[in-house]
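Retro notes - structure team

What went well: the batch runner handled both jobs without manual restarts.
What didn't: labels got mixed up in the shared folder, which is why I'm recording both outputs here explicitly, each with its sequence directly above its tokens.

Job 1
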Amino acid sequence: MYIYFDSRDIITLVEKKSSVETNKFEEKLRQCASELIFSMHNIMECCAPLVHNGETSGVMHTLNRLEQMPHVYIAEAKIEASELEEAVSAFTERREYQPIAPPFVPRFDYVVSPFEDPSTKIYVNYRLSDIIYDLYKEDPTLFMGYPDHSKRLQNILKTDRKRNDYKKHEQNFPNTIIRNLQMYNIPFPREMVSALAQWLYASPKRCPAVRLGYEVFHKLLKNITDKGENSDIPDFVHVSCVPYVYAITLDNRMRGYVAQADRSLGTDYSKKVYRNLEEIEALF
């Protein structure tokens, strides 16, 4: 079973629980043949103290302890690209969409460089803490979050809400597919995109991360009292992992939007989504 914690619960597991409690959780993971999923965002968010107060020893200790647990690394940036590549192949070949394998990679440096092998691939025994520290020395701003991206997203919300058709998200779905195909450099005839988008929209099992993210964004868009938050960028990335995990923790706001998406899609993703570490522990 693959279990995905957001950064809050990673910190709780390693820094706020006693070593005895953390060890017991690790033992439960191993007994149930379960693994934690480490992504770009849930790991990088744990490292904020590097920037805010120059704290290195505490962060390195957390990373070293995490690395001792059964885990896998996911290049979450590749999820939507891989889904769309499969969708284009299936649509072109007139066959049904086949679920993709989660884009797991061998180390965190492959997460940072998801679409090509990192220059550090030649390194042997390149530990997670070493990778993070090297990234920090090279560019400390990597650990400052995504304030500029979040502001752009908030501006997009404002702009989209001014459009008369912003609630007609089925009609707008082809625009998202066009944009994503271009972003990931996936060749496909533009004149056929509407047909591809209609085929994808007919089943939430086709490109599940793309579709879930689209629905969650539009639930947020329709809630005009929600102006967006600085955590939205990593939160949307966490959401893209939902179809590929056994269990995941999300904050209250995103859990609510996933539940709304379930009602629209006829899916049951909410059954995978938990409030916190304690709820996940109760599964074992």
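Job 2
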Amino acid sequence: MQEILKTIVHASLGAAFLTKDKIEEIKNNLLERGRLSQEEGKQFVADLVHRSEKAKEELDQWIEKKVAERIDRLNLASKDEIAALRAAIEDLRQDIAGREGH
């Protein structure tokens, strides 16, 4: 029964968007209806919180990967590349200023 409820919750709400408060609310509703015991309720919350956090991490990783792919595909300069170019320009400015001063 508990596994079926977890599956339903995951499918209908999307684990990546469940907050601890929402999970507690679902647990309380199930407890009130007699669908879960107190111990099952605690396990239910712990499991869903863990799955929700894992899903959020996986979503973040997926988004970062997709953004990196798009940046690469668009051939955009990275933050590090821009910083290196700024440093090189500053070095050239100092070199030119030093030569003009002599």
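One thing worth noting from job 2: The two ends are 85 Å apart (CA to CA).
We'll revisit the folder naming next retro.
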